[in-house]
Description:
- The complex is a heterodimer of chains A (244) and B (597).
- Chain A has 244 residues and is α+β, with helices and mostly antiparallel strands.
- Chain A is built from ten helices and seven strands.
- In chain A, the strands form two sheets. Chain A has a five-stranded mixed sheet.
- In chain A, strand 3 and strand 4 (65-68) form a beta hairpin.
- The radius of gyration of chain A is 21 Å and the shape is elongated.
- The longest helix of chain B is centred in the C-terminal third of the chain and has 25 residues, at 517-541.
- The termini of chain B are far apart.
- At the A-B interface, helix 1, helix 2 and helix 3 of A face helix 3, helix 4, helix 10, helix 13 and helix 15 of B.
Amino acid sequence: MTRLRLFRGTREGGELRDYEVAAGEGMVVLDAVHAIQADQAPDLAVRWNCKAGKCGSCSAEINGKPRLMCMTRMSDYAPDETITITPMKAFPVIKDLVTDVSWNYEVNKRIPAFKPRAADFPDGTWRMFQYEVERPQEFRKCIECFLCQDVCHVLRAHDKHEEFMGPAMLVRAAVYEMHPLDEADRSDHLCHEGGIGYCNITKCCTEVCPESITITDNAIIPLKERVADRNYDPLQWLWRKLTK
Amino acid sequence: MTARDLRTHDYDVVVIGAGGAGLRAAIEASAQKVKVALVCKSLLGKAHTVMAEGGAAAALGNVMGEDNWRVHFRDTMRGGKMHNNWRMAQIHAQEAPDRIRELEAWGALFDRTPDGKINQRPFGGHTYSRLAHVGDRTGLEMIRVLQDKGVHSGIDVHMECTIVKVFVVGDRVAGALGYFRETGRFVLFRAPAIVLATGGIGKAWQITSNSWEYTGDGHALAYDAGAELIDMEFVQFHPTGMVWPPSVRGILVTEGVRGEGGVLKNSAGERFMFRYMPEMFKGDFAETEAESDAWVAGERKKNRRPPELLTRDVVAKAITKEIAEGRGTPHGGVLLDIASKQSPDYIRKKLPSMYHQFKELAQVDITKDAMEIGPTTHYVMGGVKVDAETQESTVPGLYAAGEVGGGMHGANRLGGNSLSDLLVFGRRAGLHATAKRGAAPAIPDADIEAAMRDALEPFERSGENPFAVQAALQAVMQDNAGIIRDKGGLETALRELEKLKGRAKKVGITGSREYNPGWHTALDLHSLLVVSEATARAALERTESRGGHTRSDYPDTDERQTREQIVIKKEGDRMAVRREAQPPLPAELEKIIKEGK
Lengths: 244, 597
């Protein structure tokens, strides 16, 4: 039998409670949580969908580390080790392992929309090459698990949700900023409302990403450079003033 | 609680389900300047569409210029064993290319051809390379693009909200009642038009590629509202699901593995698919390994496709037979090998999520070793009977699009035709649903209160655990209404389902209404029971084998039943089953099908 210690509670508070499950071959942590739910605690709240690392629903903290429960094998832990599972810390708890992540959806809504250049051909189509699409394709791998938001100290420790959009939403903006067809300018948004300056490149987000997106180096740093060029380069500033 | 205290919203169109079909429907309805709600059982962007891997089929002709809608139509009809609603298959083939190009205009980043167009990959049952794709995560790309388009279209999104009832007043749709998972509180949507886009029913089986959401809610809501269901006997068992370790059993392995050259072998190392060529497809596929290898290497004009790319029903049955005859692996699967056909770099580039999935969950490196696979419940061809042009069901104001709709795929769906189906018919449903704009008929308070009372009933009982009943139902369907069926098994299924109905009425819930999965499961049991019974009854009625429906007691295809449809409808408390002839194909479409032979 393996011992699991789960957070049980709501916004108002709660406690860690111990459960025991029989660990089967190849079992992942989400299987163990489901086994508890099916036999011992039918009201245990857990969010999940695909159980294959593709939807990003079952994010939680396993022994303090932000992870997908469906992609964490029980065999990664010693048989006599207690596996502690708590909800993501950077978001308010709804119940048990489920957190309120609606803030991310609000932030996403405010990112300026995709705006393609005029079509290349009269039939309304464009030509793009594989090397051009590969860069933004990396960011489209994002499954919106929000583990990077959870680990980011700006959100997690300093609670700057009002001022900083967080790595996941910067990745979201990067898709379009680096999209070969896009013509919108998001640098003002990223600089002011998005608070990109809060990121001090500790790369914790890159480390927890289950999709191995190089969030800091490939998304955030190039966006920071864009923002700096647009907002702080005197020549560009003058050019914009004159051409506006 | 009374109906008067209920949180209530008024909309012109309410879309239930936020996968590809629901999002596309909501976007289209919103473009007609009406007030639209999108209601989803999970968070936005988590619907089953994200799991679609291989691609979206559309005759763009970017890779093989010979392709056009006629060939796509012919492939779809032959793949569906000629049982498809021909008008839907025609509309789908004609409109899919525009829907894919439109996604690109909205920001989709499909993989490219060398000359910068949308790349297309080969897939089972498709004559030409036809699937627009993004590696093996096409569905994720589609849902993100639609999600972003949707949130900038002024649609109201109601997340983690499950609909339990659709109200029909005087033969017309009037609204729907749901509950929010977070609070357990009810919400009433009043609307003259509702689009069902709830996906499928795969959670009624034990071995499935489907998530907890796939409990047939839309099928059951439509059935309870008086709409007709068709083709419920046709369930697609995808040939390649993971089989080992036990905890991952059923998780999908994309057909893209075979599209990229992967081959199937039994435990003796034999490439057995050469032995399973159906009469209908003789001459269309490679007959030797050398020819197949040459095709995989890119010489596609002179050589024919590998037999692994036969339609899913054929491949799933072949695998089942190999295993039944003792040529399976010790874990009860067969082997899918791409390591010996493509380089590690190519595999990691074209199939990154498969590489990751096997590495993480099964500790298998697919660039070195073969995958162990077996059939898994994947998709239901059957669904709500709809008008091909408008997607309206037999209940005015109730529409269905995507997997919950029936007819388009006939007896078997081709891989890649689902993602394009979502776009084509999602758009049509959203467009036509706006025709009903205006005030919805008033819903009597008593009906609303009765629906709320029904939903809360499990809290007042201290009965059986709902998870136990769900597991029992899955076992009944797996054992008796799976890939191979017979009269005795189906009758057993119906008897057992009757007992389970009784057990479902007695399940009890502990805890509060806030985010209580036990309660959610108790409510989902009703939908699961409806779709399971519909599948078993339709399967019993269809006395032949065709596509996704195989009867060991009627192993042959009966030409007389080709255009016969099994229709299910609620009559009082009874599920009525009848046969109905579909309209025959018009001469010009008949001609297109014959051209291919």
